[in-house]
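Task 17 of the worksheet. Students: predict the tertiary structure of the chain below and write it out as structure tokens. Keep your answer in the requested format; marks are given for formatting as well as content.
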Amino acid sequence: MNNVFVYCEIEGVHVADVSLELLTKGRKLANQLNCRLEAIVAGTGLADVEKQVLPYGVDCVHVFDAPGLFPYTSLPHTSILVNLFKEEKPQICLMGATVIGRDLGPRVSSALTSGLTADCTQLEIGDHEDKKNGIVYKNLLYQIRPAFGGNIVATIVNPEHRPQMATVREGVMKKEIIDEHYQGTVVRHDVAKYVPETDYVVKVIDRHVEKAKHNLKGASIVVAGGYGMGSKEGFDMLFELAKELHAEVGASRAAVDAGFCDHDRQIGQTGVTVHPKLYIACGISGQIQHIAGMQDAGIIISINNDPNAPINTIADYVINGSVETVVPKLIKYYKKNSK
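Model answer:
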């Protein structure tokens, strides 16, 4: 009762990285609340799946293993969570802000009338005072995310209803193994007790998963361009610079919307979150949405002709100048010195 739950996404028989990241965060939240961390895994052929999640500090793994639970379809997984939560009454439920999480989260929160905050960038525990009614709520989940087009950072709380539900994008939290030999219990549920046969009405006949063309999330150096790059041709310079640095190229939402770069290279609240050792921001103003996706970079270099650009406030080094002048000089320098 009143524990922290994480819904673990499955790809085949492997737990998704975003779920492992949330288990790491969930462990920290559970420690603060002095409660247990529990994981839910639903799929097909999940023998020993608990070995993938227990090292992240999971106290109990709920395994739902049956034909029809993989690939994911909405109805069976919704029934699993709704019926399990009615029994277990968790205080917090976390899941990835993925295609699956964005489908499953609203269904579960609606069925339980619990509320849901999507695309959180931070999760913390704190108190909330309802001054109008003179009530102080202790140990609530602060669900923090950019709002109103990224102009503010909103902290959302859910004082009355449970579970407090939030989705988080992959890469926002850092995954960290607590103990390779962490001891937790494993409960293998009778799926038929939770999922009615009618939930299997939708069957996946064929499925195609295309691998990413790049490794933006795992890159140690990222060269990112914004609307200030001016054109698709402007981004060609960044690809040339990235080649010399053995880096990956990213982009701000404004640059993607303008057609300068492919959507799968978008960094920020509505794109990918990256944690490179070096982040070179070229012609990026630095709206909150973009900063949310790269602020944890080791070193940030900003190249911008606007000395008052917001991104300059978080940059370690600022080069004040036009990208058309600075980037070609960088390319020339690295070509000369890499021989």
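Marker's comment: The chain has a mean pLDDT of 91. The two ends are 63 Å apart (CA to CA).
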